[in-house]
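User: Could you check the structure of this?
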Amino acid sequence: MNINGGNEVINKEMVLGWLTELGSTPDEVAVSLAAHGVKGRRGRVMRCPIAVYLRGRAQTVTGGHTVTGGHPEVVVSVGSRSANVYLRGRGVIVTVSPPDAVNAFIQRFDSDPLSYPELDEDA
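Assistant: Sure, the predicted structure tokens are below.
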């Protein structure tokens, strides 16, 4: 599935590319997220650093609009098995399996409260 946004289309290849460019190890992923100014919350599928990063990238493509009630147009949830980018009002979801480095980062960030404190919104 594709999500149309502005002049571009968000698709699986684009989302997977965004995740892959973060790095090939969990530590490289953390450094990339910090360089992008991303912070998130541990154990929160819609607020983890990867979800925040993907939402920012997707909003760049879609223009970052809001829909009825002021809710953000782009909704992202991320777990160790899937990353989902959803566009409200269009009913389209793009789902990818995170690369191994991103998956390892997610697991470490969520399970170890001492890992990557610079990315923890609550630290």
